[in-house]
Amino acid sequence: MSSKESPKITEGEIHFDVPSAGKPCKTWYKIFGDLSSGKRPLVALHGGPGVNSDYLEILSDITVSHSIPVVIYDQIGNGLSTHLQEKMGDARFWTVQLFIDELNNLLNNLGIADDFDLLGHSWGGIFAASFAITKPHGLKHLILASAPADMPLTIKSQEALRSQLSQDVQDVLNRHEAEGTTDSEEYRDACNVFNFRYVCRLDPMPQPILNGFGWIEKDPTVYMTMYYDEMTDVVVSPYFKAIPKVKWVKFSSALVMSTNESLKVTTGEIPFDVAAAGKPCKTWYKVFGDLNSGKRPLIALHGGPGVNSEYLEVLSDITITHSIPVIVYDQIGNGLSTHLQEKMGDEQFWTVQLFIDELNNLLKFFGIADNYDLLGHSWGGMLAASFAIRQPHGLKHLILASAPADMHATAESQENLRSQLPQDVQDILTKHEKDGTTDSDAYRAASDVFNFRYVCRINPMPQALLNGFGWIAKDPTVYMTMNGPSEFKIQGSLRNWSVLNEIHKINVPTLLTNGHYDEVTDVLVAPYFKAIPKVKWVVFAVSWVQSFRHFFSVVDILAA
Asked: Which residues form the AB hydrolase-1 domain (predicted)?
């Protein structure tokens, strides 16, 4: 049985001798994990230049999932390392070689110069590429994230991106640049339009990124002396063309691409015979990758109940990185599959067994019933657990993401979380539940306070999640019948659901995941951890925006 632990964290400073600095210099660093573990460490270089390494701490999930030590540090002139404001504008001082020297100094001081991997993001990628072409003997793997290969190309690319902004925004930028007033609020606001479109599309930006920009405001020395910006394909492609052993992965919310070719995607419908439905039914599906590739496919079960599978399409990154086919589908009554609004309130129809039958039908249709992995999120995890305790012979690995094991315990946990909301929010929820007006705008707004705290902390929510909730609004049949009118009091057919007495029957390697601020709290996940013989449990500090990090753990369990 695996233990659920946070990684060891070490912070410190390394002396960095820079004669031309005119004073002692230090490099601040943070290490996740144990450098003496025998695992090759990953050193991560932050962007900017001028920000700090705070936003790279998300890489610590690699330490949790793969025991890989991760080293991040604030480059000289940045963050918690030595600042040299007296060197403002000194282009002979602020050179790429300065940062290469600092990296070599760090590698030597930490004793890892003979065996390490390197990741560089943005400016850190420029720096990493400049370092890698010197062929350091200990560098084993290189990751260049949003890193340009040529600055004149970057400038042209920047101009092309800027020309796509609205004319009024371009005019504001041009005017303040001509007047030398780029420190004005109006100029910053116009820059934020660009940043939202091409740097980070989350509004508000995650705090670690804001913290990084904050360091530039505190000390703009490095940024003002070395500045460059955003990357497009044209500035990345030279790496792809010239590096002998290379892979190029592009991420977006809708489509993931590798080696400049679109990922194979297949959609369709599967006939699903449900005698009690009184009409023909179909299951809508989407397959990423090739089911004939010889790789075991991963089937993902969406939550709700009542939403659709769109938000699970992020799992297609696994297809790109590991050639694992991924199947998502809208469960009956949801999304693009057959809807049965005439079955509203029919608890004898909307049972867990109905969805197990649908899953078996899908497995048979694709001819993969003898060899597959299964991931279930939230309600989908409950369904996956109910399925797995039957020990289906073709199931090889199980992933339960934010999945409770017992609904009575879930209700108690929900009440506890709800009690931590502001009192006025609690009062609104209670009032509308008592009055039977849970479909009111006021109730939904109060529920959103809970959702932002415990479901998804990104505001506004990613569109795929909003689309899922939109399906409940269009047709609440499944949600209302299985869950009930309120997220907080399960009154539907799932109210007595539990696998507590049968968890031990799950006989395949299992990965458990939940979030630090998850509505599916540790107490709800723990029964799985205690009873499943081969199990691993990973808790993530945040969720959606760092979803790609989840894949390290997913792939880890699938490769077992």
From this structure: 41-170, 297-540
Tokens of 340: 């049965």
Q: Are the beta carbons of 510 and 532 closer than 8 angstroms?
A: yes
Q: Do domains 9-150+232-250 and 262-407+493-558 have the same CATH topology?
A: yes
- How distant, in Å, are the alpha carbons of 293, 336, 358 from that of 351? 34, 20, 11
CA distance 257 to 264: 10
CATH of domain 9-150+232-250: 3.40.50.1820
Task: Give the model's pLDDT for residue 160.
Answer: 84
Beta-bridge partner residues of 219: none
Three-class SS state of 236 = helix
> Domain residues of the chain, as ranges?
9-150+232-250, 152-218, 262-407+493-558
Per the DSSP assignment, residues forming a β-bridge with 287 are 266, 327
Nearest Cα residue to 402 out of 413, 387, 415, 393: 413
C-alpha span between 105 and 76 (Å, rounded): 12
Rounded distance between C-alpha atoms, residue 255 and residue 74, angstroms: 33
Of 542, 538, 541, nearest in space to 552 by CA: 538
Max CA separation in the chain (angstroms): 84
Question: 369 is written with which tokens?
Answer: 């019933």
What is the pTM (predicted TM-score) of this model? Answer: 0.58
Domain 262-407+493-558: CATH class, spelled out = alpha beta
Q: Are 283 and 272 in contact (CB under 8 A)?
A: yes
